[in-house]
Amino acid sequence: MVKSTIIARVADGLPLAASMDDEQAESELAGYKSQAKAVFKKLNAQSEPMCSIESGPYYLHYLLDQSVCYLCICEKAFPRKLAFSYLDELAKEFGTSYGDEVDKTSLRPYAFIKFDTFIQKTKRIYEDSRAQQNMSKLNEDLRDVTQIMTKNMEDLLWRGDSLDRMSTLSSKLRDQSEKYRKDARRVNLEALYRKYGIPAAIVLGFLLILYLRYKLF
Amino acid sequence: MPQGYPPQLATAQAQGPMAPQMSDLSQQFSQMGVGANPAEYQTAVLGGKPQLSALDEAPPAIKLPPNSTCVPSQFVICPPSHKRSTLNAIPRTDKLLKKTKLPFGLVITPFKSQEQGEDPLPVVAEIVRCRRCRAYINPFVQFVEGGRRWKCILCSLSNDVPLVFDYDSATQTQKDRWQRADLNYSVVEFIAPLEYMVRPPMPPVYVFIIDVSYASVQLGAPGVIGQTILSALDRIPNADLRTKVAFVAVDSSLHYFQIRPNSTEPQQMVVGDLDDVFLPSPTDLLLNLHECRQGIECLLSRLESMFKSNHSVGNALCPAIQSAQKLLGALGGKIIVMLASPPTIGEGKVEPRTEGKDLGTPRESDLLRPQNTWYKTVAAECSRTQIAFDTVFIGQQPMDIPTVSGLARYTGGSVFYYPSFMATRKPEVDRFAQEFANHLSARVALESVLRVRASKGLRMASYYGNFFLRSLDLLALPNGLPNHSYAVDIEIEENLTAPVVYFQTALLHTTAYGERRIRVATLALPTTDNIHTVFHHADQVAIASLLSRKAVDRALVAKLEDAREALQHKALEIIGAFKTECTQSSSGATTQLQIPRALQLLPFLTLASLKHTSLRSGNNVPSAMRMSAINSILTLPAEQGVQPYTVARLYSLHDLPPQAGYPDEQTGITVLPPRLGLSAESLLPYGAYLLHDGSDTFLWFGRDVSPALCQSLLNMQDVRMIPSGVITFPDLSGGSSGDGPVAGFELNFQVNNILRRLNDLCHNLWKPVTYVCKEDGEPVLRMWMAQRLAEDMDTSAPSYQQFLSQIRDKVNRGNF
């Protein structure tokens, strides 16, 4: 289920609205919320519009729409399609209600906190992932899962990964090169066996016969 | 005649309801130094009747040396209603302060609302603070190095002036820094950026825990409560439609009310298992006021009929509080506890305390102490999660107010007590309805904290009021209110070398519409080496307010007798110190005691405090009333706490001046008649009088009062026809003061206007109930009214004249 939602401005990371979470969620999610803030800082206009970032037991899904970023922290088991459908609904409602006010420079933090009531209502609808409506949403071909970029939080924060569209290719490349390294190692090892395998086997066999014949000493 | 002001600061002296005229603009600057000419200070002789009109004057002028402020603005003097100091000229050394024996402290109303006629507070978007001591920029800073740096007033560090002062990057224009509100006004509000928020701004949340046990139903309380809240639903702060409410009814089990999103009918869920408290439903108990409005209205109007025949006698308040805590979770909010019977179930249950024979004896002080610590512990936990409590006590049952009110006292909430409440008594119902509705519609300061900073050498020693003290100097107020005030004792730790010292209070809060703001009030006071100056610039109202708070605090912690003793002793010390230090007859005896004009009412205010319900000796003050009075003393602002709550106002109605009760031509404010001395001497047998002490109004009729007066006032032929006791004062002139009086009822019109004006002066904190007291009427009423006549002798304390002669003797003898 959706644990927490934050809506922020892409340009400077200013939070515009957020869900008021209950006590349990607050204590568990404190670290992940600060990670969410770090993600906001890394966002810019060239960033990938939809992305899921893996971090510990949660996924941080975000959606970019008209210079506003909608981010939710969900459990890993929560279907990704549902999460993005939820973010999509939020984006539509927020865009129509407040879209033109987002770019004012003098906006105070959490200026649209009254959007929280809509967030709560929508969250309740999406809460039960086995509910009838949600099943039908899952079955529809809303978005191709492979089109949504997947990242790891560790990489993002410490290995200097970024959220650019172009980085999809480079991360694919990295995965591929990992695989290649594994394969290359394997092939190397096989070649070694093939080269030295048979003589080594013969020598070992010979030593074994000697040992058995003269096992008296 | 007050000392001169420089032209720029002259207008700042006009404060208070009846401010003295502004001084001449042509006074010299050279005489501006503090402590200039002792011969110009006026002393008064203690004797005769107290001059009560002095209570309406502004406090002694604060005379700052020239060029103390960077901008000559008339708003740099901190208005006394926001913050006032007991001394408007601070002694430079602790030795000097101890010699004067005057108490040094501040009385602060941090979240005061602006009244009609006052401009709204200026709002500033950029926050500029000192790097070292974190003080906020204010009108008293000095700009050094050609305006590139500013010097902090508290720690003297030079800080850089940010670019935003001179240049507006959004519009690419130059700005005039001298027009900035934070350099022109002493009280400003800053908009707090993200760093001042731990979490998104919380909405206003109200949870009502209503007692529906047999005792409460007998009084008709659930019905009245339901109707009151129903009528106040539109006034509860709900600007961004996020306000949440919840209702829990309590008798020997807990009743929860759930309203599902698409229905308008509330569902009642009863939980009888109270050992391990749980919420019967995870959702839909905490309701959004706007969305579930219909369901809530339906619930409130049915509250009376739902519990009409309830015979359950227990009161499960403690489990109710625990479940309300669960309901609010980390959100926080205000829990309003409405009790008509004592809590009998749960860990915090209270045992009934018999008090009949303990009143008037030293054991009475034990009755004021809580019997268990459960409530204080719960309050401490709750203030951490931004939960505040208000406690409302209804009816005559012994509910152990000293114990249960700990919930409100340690979370910055309010305590209400309605002992004579009954649904059939209309004046009481009106009083409850109006006061409670006003309370619900008050602007709240959510998740707020208050800190007071002072110049080097001054230390905040202790705080008085309803709050939770976190980390030595941070007052946590989960739901701050506009009419709550706090007092601070200040100590002089090191000798003060600067000519001016500063006090800055900062209240970081979330407004009811989700904006995080900081209200900063800066007070600048001059220092002096001259003991005469200190005495003549003391603020008697602030001193009386601070001393009465300290006295009731002492009564709660130690004994009532100690508190009374300490208060009297303090007054004696101050007068003795003045005699010794400032008058010619320093060591000999005098027949007449001299006192500075600024402190001329100090003995009277001390006597009035001693006679007030909170400290009164004798055996006829129930501990519940006393506790409620103590709580009022601790939280009322100085202006309302001293007058009229401690010192009532008495007016004569049979010889009202013609302009009294009518709006003044220039200001439009109703003119009040002259006050009379608070003594039975003022009550003549042919007269009618009005006594107002905030929460009650007394109409006193002599036995020979003229029938014409009775007719014009109450539409009754003769004084004998007027019923004694509680009445609803009729409005015989058609309501608003805009239309003139109806012929024949001019007096009624005037008195109604006067009453309205008196309530305005109290900021509508109370809706007074009117009692008719006749000269030959019931003795109980007469005694009750006589308690307010502070100049007279009664069983608890001497008369004013006797008190003065006692003081004179003790001071002359030199031992006290």
Describe, in plain words, how this protein is organized in 3D.
The complex is a heterodimer of chains A (217) and B (816). In chain A, helix 2 (80-98) packs antiparallel against helix 3 (116-126). Chain A is of the alpha+beta class. The longest helix of chain A has 47 residues, at 167-213. Chain A has helices spanning 23-42, 80-98, 116-126, 132-139, 153-158, 167-213, and strands at residues 2-9, 15-18, 50-55, 58-65, 68-75, 149-152. Chain B is built from 21 helices and 32 strands. In chain B, the strands form 7 sheets. In chain B, strands 3, 5, 11, 20, 22, 23, 25 and 26 form an 8-stranded mixed beta sheet that branches. In chain B, strands 12, 13, 14, 15, 16, 17, 18 and 19 form an 8-stranded mixed beta sheet that branches. The model of chain B is unreliable at 1-37 (pLDDT under 50).
- Count structural domains of chain A: 2
What pattern of helices and strands is seen along the backbone of chain A?
A: EEHEEEHHHEHH
The CATH homologous superfamily of the largest domain in chain A corresponds to Longin domain
Tally the helices of chain B: what do you get? 21
Major pleated sheet of chain B: 8 strands, mixed
Largest interface chains and counts: A-B, 22 and 26 residues
Q: Looking across the biggest beta sheet of chain A, what order are the strands in?
A: 2-1-5-4-3-6
- What fraction, in percent, of the residue positions of chain B are helical? 25-40%
Number of helices of chain A: 6
Broad CATH class of the largest domain in chain A: Alpha Beta
- Hey, roughly how much beta strand do the residues of chain B contain? 15-25%
Largest sheet of chain A: 6 strands, mixed
**Helices and strands of chain B: which structural class?**
alpha+beta
Distance between the termini of chain B: 34 Å
DSSP strand tally of chain A: 6
Counting copies of identical and different chains, the oligomeric state is heterodimer
Overall pLDDT of chain A, averaged?
A: 83
Q: What is the helical fraction of chain A, as a range of percent? A: 40-55%
CATH architectural label of the domain at 205-440 in chain B: 3-Layer(aba) Sandwich
Q: What would the CATH topology of the largest domain in chain A be?
A: Beta-Lactamase
